[in-house]
């Protein structure tokens, strides 16, 4: 006597209901993962922005310290209306010997770091908001006298609710 396979309990495939149920669960899990990956990407950009701001600001401060040391050691003359901060990013990249304070041109940056939330166009240098030592701390306009501080040109809002340009 031959037993029909349809009625035996050892069928070897998935039913349509099991397949739909599995796909639905995978879809729900995928929808839950997407916001986490977006948040992780934003968080990594924020970390990069903080690091790049710290690198630039440290370079500016180091330049100012060396300028003040050169004046103190009488390597250069103190000039009226000169703050001692670099005139531009280029000065930080090209370097300065401060009248013989160093036997070489001390360079403070190898290149201008990129703002991850305001990347430059292809072939253009990175752009940052700049403030001089005589500018209002809340000003968005650079006076052009020197490079005292930098900020992001992005209008975005950080994960903590603050604005990137206020960092």
TrEMBL record:
Coiled coil: none annotated. GO terms for cellular component: type II protein secretion system complex. SUPFAM superfamilies: Pili subunits. The chain crosses the membrane at residues 20-41. GO terms for biological process: protein secretion by the type II secretion system. InterPro entries: Bac_GSPG_pilin, N_methyl_site, Pilin-like. It holds the Pfam family N_methyl. It comes from the Bacteria. Keywords: Membrane, Methylation, Transmembrane, Transmembrane helix. This is Type II secretion system pseudopilin PulG. It comes from Geobacter sulfurreducens (strain ATCC 51573 / DSM 12127 / PCA). The gene is pulG.
